[in-house]
Protein 1
Amino acid sequence: MKRVLLLVLAVVLAVGSAAGAESPTGQEILGDLSFRTILSGSGSAELTMITENAKGAQRSFSLKVYVQMDEEGDAQFLEYLAPADVRGTKFLSVKPKDGESQMWLYLPALGRERRIAAHMTGDSFMGTDFTYEEIGGDFDYEEDYTVQRLPDQAEQGVDCYLLELTAKGSEALYSKVRMWVWKEQMVPVKIEFYGSGDALSKTLTLSNFLPVSGELIPHHVVMANNAQGTRTILELTEVSQETVDPDIFTVRNLRR
Amino acid sequence: MKKRVQILTVILVLACAVPAWALEPSGEIYGSIGYEWDRENKEGEFASIRTGFRLALEDELEELGKLHFSTKGWLDLKQSDGSIALDQLWLKGYSGDFDYQVGRQLISWGTADGFNPTNYFARLNSSALLSGDLQGEAVWAGRAEYYAPSWSATGVLIPIFAPQKIDDLMRKMISESHPQGALLLEAIEKAKKPGLGHPEAALRVETQLAGFDVQASYFWGFEPLPGMEMVMGPTGPALEGTYRRQHFFGLAVAGTVGSAGVWAEAAYGGPEKFAEPDNPFEMRIPMSINEKYLQAVVGGDYTVDLGSGLLVQAQYIYRGQGSLLAPYVMPKETLEPGDIEAAHYLYGRLAYDFTQDSSADLMVLYGTKEKAGIIRPSYTHRLVNGLQFELSLLQPFGEEGDFQSIPTQVGLAVKYQF
């Protein structure tokens, strides 16, 4: 799969039918997922993001997200709409096809943008359970992992293919990834991320799939940090697959 | 009491005006208590019991741009003082490849963190420097930005010069660090400010080179504080301040190297030299730098893989114009100008989020010449959305230098943002 854009940004995953084979291999399933990325490679969404600490206390944020994925590369733009202490904070990530990711964070209190260091791509994004890398959609499962199909399982009441992805090298953020793919719709409904020692690090759950412009988009996404007992919940309130103006993904737009 | 009533009246009027504007207001209300400990007198006291606010109204004008109004004020019950003032009032517009903004606005340039030699307009006062509030002051200005595909240019024009504000801490440091501190403050007040017809301007060009953001800039303006001279005349010595024209060329760079964020920023230039005295019976001794100089910052940050991630930041600050805290140097007994030595500072910062609701920050500023500095640990806790409190300590250390004017301060602040 080319890139599974984890929610926020368009967590969009491929829709469509399974490959023609009756018993597809793991690689084929992964390939089918990548066949059509969500938002057709470009779109926007408004969402509510709830962060929950280990004691269950929650904090709610409102965001606007824009995504663009094409032959030239990927770009994401996020703006916090609420609450007041983060309102106006904006995040821009641009990754050319064969280049390094560049990220900027605009802080209204500072009145200008700041470059985000590459090292932060493995760190928590704005205190959530998503990493900068995950928020930036900067995942490449085909490139970073080898895939193996395990016996099918039911998940969220639907029949699923179960894939196990093992890291090819140290470039991969996780040592192992397990992915439950809804057979009928060819969309992942659950992904487990394993860290060092194959300990379960995070679990991503995707549900409430609703059609947007003919494609299924998960409107309820939960990332649980199994190690820390925290969760980040995303509720998509508005999703659009209309092409996003490329000017959105510019430092100029950060400053507006 | 009269000022208190005025401030409360303005707040009330603004609060009533908000529904009429039909915009959702944003801003903050805060209260803080500050306790100071004077090392010399071995005495401590509550130095401030302050409450304040900031109220902002902003309207999106469709594709045309944005309109912004904000005001801020504070009232110190301990000092029986207060203020209410316009914060920002601007109109922003977009037209093709051009963006423009006119009105009272915050202009923030540079790539370094807090210490920005190329941030010519948003001057920081001493209190802001020590409190970590690094936003700076808004100025009346017109700004135009042009965006080409691979570069951009920004021009700024300030029609009326606004000098550096002298806050309580700077007033204290000037008055205590010079034998003639009171006279210095008086001379600063008396210095004639350049009026209409004496604008300031700056130009900045930005691009990317090898993945680095690069900004080159030129500034044509005035000194933020007046250049000071001791005038030895027939009637005895006197202090005289003059706001001199100054020019700066700046260069700022930011990017990443490996897994670290890095930045560098420098500005070279300075004020025009003091005019030669017309009166042959008069001798003028500069107390401010009277030549061009360099100021520069080099820094970086890195997140250590420890718990939720420990942010480590370090900066080296070079100031060719001398001390960060003392803008003037007294003449020698031989009636020669005092030595203005370049000053070197090291700035370090650690930041850590214990949870999504609580975080700690530690800032250290150390002057290598003074062999002294300040350390400021703080802890912030968010109670519910928008409501947070901060506990902080400001502690000077070392034996010499201007940092000794800074008392030990403990502060507790509660802030609600809406």
Protein 2
Amino acid sequence: MVKKLLSIRILFAAAVTLSFAYGVFEARTYAYLARIFPFYISLVLFFLALINLVQEIRKTVQGTAEEEAGGTADLEVKWDIEMSQVLMKFLLFVGVIIILYGFIWLIGYPLSITIFIIVMYRYLSETKWIWALIAGLAGLGFLALVSKLLYMDWPEGIFKLPWPLG
Amino acid sequence: MEVVFQSLAVVLQPHHLLMLICGVFMGLAIGILPGLGGIVGMTILLPVIYGMDPHSAFGLLIGMVAVIPTSDTFPSVMMGIPGSSASQATIMDGYPLAKKGEAARALGAAFSASLIGGLFGALVLTVIIPIARPIVLAFGSPELFMLALLGMSMVGVLSGKKPIRGILAAGMGVMLGALGDAPAVPEYRYTFGIDYLMDGIPLVVVGLGLFAFPEIVDLLIKGRAISEVTTLGRGWWDGVKDTFSHKFIVLRCSIIGVIVGFLPGLGGSVVDWIAYGHVIQTSKDREKFGQGDIRGVIAPESANNAKEGGGLIPTFLFGIPGSGSMAVFLGGLLILGIQPGPSMVTENVGLIYTAIWSLALANVLGASLSIALSKPITRLTLIPFSFLAPFMVLIITFACYQATRSWGDLIALLLMGVVGWVMKQYGWPRPAALIGYVLSDNLETYLFISVQRYGLDWLKRPGVMVLAGIIFVSLAMGIFFQTKRTAATSGGEHGKKAS
């Protein structure tokens, strides 16, 4: 039961409730005109979030909670695999993005994203090295072109590299 | 009338046309990528339009958003997965037709129906502007506040399976929009001492985080090509003829599209199902629906293109977005220095007509290009998503970084992405959150002006009271019908279990 209650569904509902509670708590300290809007909005939403949280917990305890995705204004989510596997893959992707950010912090955006594309092509899409390299260079070329044409910047790393690598 | 033709002259200028064509090509590309609809496309374009003249920016933005409901038909018909939320119902009959070897017929019907629907939406928008002008000008800050509140309440109630989650999602967006400097006084709110949050989280980051990131992750997890059907088969012209032989379905569904586009909270994701349901209900021979009936393609496709014209009406006239993509468009208007709302019909009426002409032209271009380029586009849909994903990551991280050019953008993108993914998996409507975020600033400003100018007397204004009544009725009806539907569903399930 404890495991069920610690499901992402309930944890997310609890996080939403807590964030509105924080919204009320923090808004008290602001000047009147800055306070009035967030205070009352988050106060009303806090009570609604609490009702939602209680409903979620009750459904989980009764065993009637179902994994319902989307809603009418969103794309439906249907998985052929177990939700735990989906979650693992999601966390893996988030981990990859964090590693990418780490590389960007070290060596800058262009070289990091090029390496990212090459690695993804080589190990996720399982292409040959040559195609992975071509894809990486295409990404770098696109980046260089767009940033020159539209005067866009990219994050620089600790180690400064010559254009277009850093 | 003069301003209408002046706007046409602006639209036909080479620079504007070039921007429009760029937007159309981007729309075609984004439409064929499953899940990445108008919200993501518009958000990617936001950093590009900084400093651009409004007419050219309109060409780019409207060119793109007008074409997505046309090109998203490719994955719906070829694979049976929606290119965007607006083309889910097209799958019901489009995909069976493709499996029968009649993909070309389905696409031909879809593109011609999309074209007519899109033009109908633009026509309605043209007619509405002069009629709505005196009504819109009668609206003051109190009424605009109530209208924004009405939009929020409708979004909340209508956009999710559970009204309470819809309202909470919209509220999350409002609170997210309240981050940073307060509009009325020099005070920073909810910044946790982080400099990045002093100006709030930029729209680009919120849009891409909530929408693009979760779709990329989900498609990578599914790990397959966009399409499985390799040949288009026969019947392009038959498809076009089908559309014209079912002209009344096209007309009725276009009207549905405009109305649904106009209503905040419904937007693209439900318009196709309403149109599909309507065509089934009004047809005597219903047996073939779901097995490849061409009417099941024509109805949703005409409705989902028409809704863009309908969605622009509240966006321009009241500053209330009808859907998620219109919310981003509203953000784009603010970036361009244009304040949507009643002043649009006095100060920027030329821009409205530029948008209308762009919408019409983009629909013609989009449908023509979709037919002309159908073979290469079909080949593109055979590429596994793992080949496209790294480039999508490049585009969203690069676009995000342009918002404030700080590390905060990238970190916020990841955090918003995680929140967006969880929301998607567990039925929290993300469009409601986005609309809440965009409306947040307007809500607070209108409330502030109303209180400053009228004290509490603003609540006694007739317009405010009427709108308050409508909000109450819409909330009550939304919750009532939702409860009824839930009861019917659970009753059905029990019935099934019992039998």
